[in-house]
Amino acid sequence: MYQHRRSRIIIAGFLLTTCVGPLVGCSVEKRAFEAYRNGVKHFSDGRVDEALILFNKALIDDPSLAMAHYYLGRCYLETDPPWPLVAEEEFKLALEMLNETPDKLAKAGPELEALPLDQVKAKILLGTGKASAYRALLRINLQLDLPAGAEQLSSALGYLKQGAKLDPENREIAELADYYNVRLHQLRSYLRGVRAA
Questions:
Q1: Structural domains of the chain, with CATH
Q2: pLDDT (tens digit per residue) in 129-138
Q3: What's the pTM value of the predicted model, to 2 decimals?
Q4: What are phi and psi of 112, to 5 degrees?
């Protein structure tokens, strides 16, 4: 039932974006920014499904809105069930776009617009690391493919270490990096023990 409701919401958002939006007569950039701002508000209010639709709408109108990709990634991590692979790709797109056009940060939203560019990039890397680690821990906990899980966890650590270099004051990044580093060493020790046996 819940999945059907979500599908209907997503389809309705898509139809509004593609059919009704162009008839309204406002500029594409203005529509994209308005959808983005509303998405940030909905996300801040905990209405993730509605925010997801608005960020997608913003990106249909203006695919270069780096921070819409960032928030879309956060939405995908908070949906039920989470979509960490899609979230990771959105975070990577946001970082890539910010590296190419740092002026896109000017309209980042209340949570980020007062931060220096390096701190925003660190937040994006934190999101990327969380998504990557989520995928790794899922593999590890389900005993699916432990070597691939170790590789994925190592990748997550790489993102977190990059984020820590950009924002050394961010305690969340440092604590997650320490935690995943311990988990990675435990997993590698376990894999060495399995190979030796």
A1: 1-103 (1.25.40.10), 114-197 (1.20.58)
A2: 888 888 888 8
A3: 0.74
A4: -120, -20
